[in-house]
Design brief:
The chain has 721 residues and is an alpha/beta fold. It folds into four domains: 79 residues, no CATH class; 97 residues, Beta Barrel (OB fold (Dihydrolipoamide Acetyltransferase, E2P)), CATH 2.40.50.140; 193 residues, Rossmann fold; 177 residues, 3-Layer(aba) Sandwich (Rossmann fold), CATH 3.40.50. Helices cover 39% and strands 18% of the residues. The chain has 25 helices and 23 strands. The strands form five sheets. It has a seven-stranded parallel β-sheet with strand order 13-14-12-15-16-11-17, sandwiched between helices. Strands 18-23-22-19-21-20 form a six-stranded parallel β-sheet, sandwiched between helices. Helix 4 packs antiparallel against helix 6, helix 8 packs antiparallel against helix 10 and helix 11 packs across helix 17. The radius of gyration is 33 Å and the shape is elongated. The protein starts with 5 loop residues before the first strand and ends with a helix.
């Protein structure tokens, strides 16, 4: 090992020997640019290029990052003289002579070759590969992998490679990469292509600063990528993988953080004064005192609101943890400063719910609230818009329509977004831009009850500050959850009738039918009719689904909230935020079709009042995953714990459509497994962005290019970084 090519690493690790990569490939072909199409490789025509496209391979760069899923170990070569009977082995030998033989069996022909090394002779046999007879000639150097059948002195060849030609041991020397393949693109072909790419690997620039690399004991990028494909040892492979996982997470974190820096610099918010009388009165007037989590979250928010940079905060709290109070607090801070606030809900039903509960909470405060509903037309709508534009309305509640086209606010300073879990980086950015009025970007509080494992919040919401309400208000009782077998269905209805007779209410959620909304509606209507005619005959049964006209939906919710309807048969439209404290039973039909987060959300609709509440899950889990989900529901009440279980059951790939989060796909990193690396990446990214917020320093130029490349053109916000 020469000094210049040796990197000192941290204690406990062997010094890293830098690999000497080939500068030209054996084929004499020299790939130039990562962005070049695959067709520039020798031997790749349009048909192969199309087939490769199916594997997601379009450019040479794609190929470099098409990593093997394992390596086959050809490191140990056996001498012919030492082969044992029945042993599978790799042998390096020379061809003596070759013959093609027709056997008595009609379809079986053999190629036999006498081969030798320094220790002995044996006969290598191939089945039905006639062409070999023409390919092998005496004196050729061969590597064979196969089984030695000692009794007959025959070596049955499973794979072989002719050395000295183009591939030079690609398929049979050392650790041989095994790739995801398709019918048309064989593993040998991929190895061949990657073999040709090695000179390009050697030229790869490294986006990580040498100091960072040295500090963390990570190899160069060029070496790491080469070692992912062609490692000399397994340790080398592991280190290469670690380096690339770090890189992936680091790029993502730097991207998110610099986006955020940029946002703060570019946008002007309204620096609000300290909390005043209005908020104090509100808190004091509540029929309960805030939990310590609610208090500390309010304090964090208060700190944000007093800064000129617009707040971008995520509030996570399980269903029923009391986020609404925090939302109202945040909005009142704007109002007492003479400004306006808006509360955005994902659906009109929910917006209306919020409107009514806020009206109650703020009774007598002199606050002017307005609900911007799509029902509002003509003069009424014009009046409302006027109120927002002249500032006489303090708090507006509605869906995303609140920040659309013709809606103007005079002094909008705070926006609260309820249940924003379907939002990605880009949508958040868009929201901030759209909500900007007269040059002022409002402070935004995103609230979510879809529990996101804390570790993942760091990634998915890496551009936000995160607050968490962990503890529930005291006195909450655990919602009893049962998985009810079909045989006990009748008994379950009897139990529900007892609850209804005691004055309580019940939701019945019908199965999720993904194929068609029309079918789903039919199912809900059918179930409502059935229940009204049979099990709940004589009780008041209501119906709610997404296809109803807005007015009917609102009427259905109103009747249920007022206690006029006792049983509400519904689809998942009740999933988020609906708050009817008198409802104590949640029935979910075919619960096995629902995801864990969704079930937890549904369950959260009950247990909101003083009465003991119940969740009854019907359904027959047909898969092991579904079984585990339902089992988790009956044993676990904590949303965060459920989120972790969900992640474990589903695997993270599915849980986070990265499309929707606006983040690049993670090729190698697994967030749970690589949590420690993620944290390190976050820390290092924070340091970097603090020192060079615009990534404008020359030493960070490569990093910036790379972030652009991996986040891709689809992520508009990065272009502004
Ligand atoms: P979520 O976080 O799901 O939006 P809500 O804000 O709707 O929860 O609160 C659920 C219920 O808990 C409401 O009825 C609310 O009045 C009540 N609540 C909120 N905070 C407290 C508290 N500190 N003590 C007791 N009850 C509370
Ligand atoms: Mg809520």
């Amino acid at each position: 090992m020469t000094k210049a090519r040796c990197l000192t690493v941290f204690a406990g690790m062997a010094p890293l020997q830098i690999r000497k990569l080939p500068r030209t490939s054996k084929s004499g072909f020299n790939p130039r640019e990562l962005g070049d199409p695959l067709i520039t490789l020798p031997g790749v025509g349009p048909a192969l290029a199309t087939a490769a496209h199916k594997l997601g391979l379009q450019t040479l760069g794609d190929l470099l990052f098409h990593f093997p899923h394992r390596h086959e170990d050809f490191t140990v070569q056996k001498e012919i003289g030492k082969l044992k009977w029945g042993e599978e082995a790799t042998v390096r030998c020379r061809v003596e002579k070759v013959a093609l033989l027709q056997t008595r069996r009609r379809n079986l022909r053999l190629v036999k070759s006498m081969v030798r090394d320094g220790t002995g002779y044996m006969e290598a046999v191939w089945y039905n590969q006639d062409y070999l007879a023409g390919q092998l000639t005496s004196g050729d150097e061969l590597i064979l992998r196969g089984t030695y059948e000692g009794g007959t002195g025959v070596f049955k060849v499973r794979s072989h490679e002719l050395l000295g030609k183009q591939s030079g041991g690609l398929h049979t020397l050392g650790y041989v990469p095994v790739y995801p393949t398709t019918e048309k693109i064989s593993v040998k072909r991929l190895r061949g292509w990657l073999g040709m790419m090695r000179p390009l690997m050697a030229q790869l620039a490294d986006p990580l600063a040498s100091s960072l690399r040295a500090e963390l004991g990570l190899p160069w990028r060029a070496d790491a990528i080469d070692a992912m494909h062609f490692p000399r040892t397994l340790d080398e492979f592991k280190l290469a993988e670690r380096r690339l996982i770090f890189e992936e997470l680091y790029l993502m974190q730097v991207g998110l953080l610099s986006h955020r820096r940029h946002f703060e610099k570019e946008r002007r918010g309204a620096a609000l004064g300290a909390a005043g009388r209005l908020t104090c009165d509100f808190i004091r007037g509540l029929p309960f005192s805030l939990t310590s989590d609610q208090k500390s979250v309010c304090k964090e928010i208060s700190g944000d609101l007093q800064k000129a940079a617009p707040m971008q905060r995520l509030l996570q709290g399980d269903v029923g943890s009391g986020k609404t109070v925090v939302a109202v607090y945040t909005m009142l801070r704007a109002v007492e400063d003479g400004r306006q606030a808006a509360l955005m809900a994902p659906t009109e039903v929910l917006a209306e719910q919020h409107y009514f509960s806020l009206e109650q909470m703020l009774l007598g405060s002199g606050m002017r609230l307005a609900l911007l509903s799509s029902r509002l037309k003509g003069v009424e709508r014009a009046e409302l818009l006027q109120g927002l534009a002249d500032g006489s309305i303090d708090i507006a509640i509605g869906t995303h329509a609140l920040i659309q086209g013709d809606v103007d606010f005079r002094r909008l300073a705070v926006v609260v977004v309820d249940e924003q879990h379907r939002f990605g980086v880009e949508q958040r950015e868009e929201l901030a831009v759209k909500a900007t009025r007269h040059g002022v970007t409002p402070h935004v509080l995103h609230m979510t009850a879809t529990p996101i494992p804390r570790t993942l919040a760091l990634t998915l919401y890496g551009d936000l500050d995160v607050s968490v309400i962990e503890s529930m208000p005291s006195g909450r009782r655990r919602i009893k959850t049962w998985l009810v077998p079909e045989a006990k269905r009748a008994g379950a209805y009897g139990f529900i009738r007892e609850q209804l007779d005691a004055g309580r209410q019940c939701y019945v959620v019908c199965p999720l039918i993904e194929e068609s909304e029309a079918v789903e509606v039919k199912a809900v209507e059918g179930e409502a009719e059935r229940l009204a005619a049979t099990e709940f005959r004589g009780y008041r049964v209501g119906l709610l689904h997404g296809q109803l006209p807005v007015a009917s939906k609102q009427e259905a919710m109103r009747l249920f909230a007022a206690g006029d309807t006792q049983v509400l048969v519904t689809t998942t439209v009740v999933e988020v935020g609906v708050d009817v404290p008198n409802a104590t039973v949640m029935v979910v039909e075919e619960a096995d079709r629902f995801g864990l987060a969704q079930l937890h959300q549904l369950r959260g609709r009950v247990g909101r009042g003083l009465h003991e509440s119940f969740c009854l899950l019907f359904g027959d889990p047909r898969t092991e995953q579904a079984e585990r989900r339902l089992e988790a529901m009956t044993t676990t009440a904590d949303g965060f714990a459920l989120a972790d279980i969900d992640l474990e059951i589903r695997g993270e790939g599915q849980l986070f459509g990265t499309r929707q989060s606006g983040l690049p796909d993670l090729r190698l990193a697994r967030l749970i497994r690589d949590l420690e690396v993620l944290k390190m990446a976050r820390r290092k990214a924070e340091g970097l962005v603090a020192a060079d917020p615009e990534l404008g320093k020359p030493e960070n130029a490569l990093l910036k290019d790379e972030i652009r490349r991996v986040f891709g053109d689809s992520v508009k916000w990065l272009d502004r970084v």
